[in-house]
Amino acid sequence: MPITVLVVDDQELMRAGLRMVLGAHPDLTVVGEADNGAAAVRRARELTPDVVLMDVRMPVVDGVTATGQILESGCGSRVLVMTTFDLDEHALGALRAGASGFLLKDTPPEDLISAIRSVAAGDAVVSPKVTKRLLDRLIAEDPGSTRDAAVLDVLTAREREVLEQIAAGRSNAEIAAQLFLSEATVKTHVGRVLTKLGLRDRVQAVVLAYETGLVRPGA
């Protein structure tokens, strides 16, 4: 079955361009469009698309709020945020709300297609290193955007090490080499970290590592 996509952007030209790019791939189908966050939530509930391509700066309801509402609705859609600026605090808000990652609007078409496929398969597509730059800046500017480190007490010492490695932007293979473990063991640890902390994916793990102070801005 093709991957179904809901395109959300307040610019008609942007929506038309995305529809054209996605339409060139037989495994992707655009099932609907929305020009604001409120409409996006309604359409997501109606259409239950596999992936929602979400703009963050929109009228009526912004993309961050819409992302949270879509994920809380239980419709099963995953959200991929698109933004103009790579240091966009709105994009970070969407990640905190549960988005599976974000891309810049000038992302090459082939990378966009790959990202949609990855998100539909349950992966996160934003580079943790990009998220790290966002968090470095925003947490430094707003020390209040932190969480009690006690939430990490459910982790073993090894799992905390793995979380630190995830926050550093390392892949499973890189973590395995760093900690002298097999990739299969690292994969198991990553799964346990996400499950114990109630996280959707590695992106949210990076955010939590910063918010709890496990990793410090600039480290």
From TrEMBL:
Residue numbers bearing the 4-aspartylphosphate modification: 55
UniProt keyword terms in alphabetical order: DNA-binding, Phosphoprotein, Transcription, Transcription regulation
InterPro entries linked: CheY-like_superfamily (IPR011006), NreC/VraR/RcsB-like_REC (IPR058245), Sig_transdc_resp-reg_C-effctor (IPR016032), Sig_transdc_resp-reg_receiver (IPR001789), Tscrpt_reg_LuxR_C (IPR000792), WalR-like (IPR039420)
Gene3D superfamilies, per the entry: 3.40.50.2300
Record's keyword annotation contains Nucleus: no
Domain Response regulatory: 4-120
GO terms (BP aspect): phosphorelay signal transduction system; regulation of DNA-templated transcription
Signal sequence residues: none
UniProt cross-references to SUPFAM superfamilies, sorted A to Z: C-terminal effector domain of the bipartite response regulators, CheY-like
Annotated HTH luxR-type domain residues: 148-213
GO molecular function: DNA binding
PANTHER family given in the database record: TRANSCRIPTIONAL REGULATORY PROTEIN NARL-RELATED (PTHR43214:SF24), TWO-COMPONENT RESPONSE REGULATOR (PTHR43214)
Record's protein name: Transcriptional regulatory protein DegU
Gene: degU_1
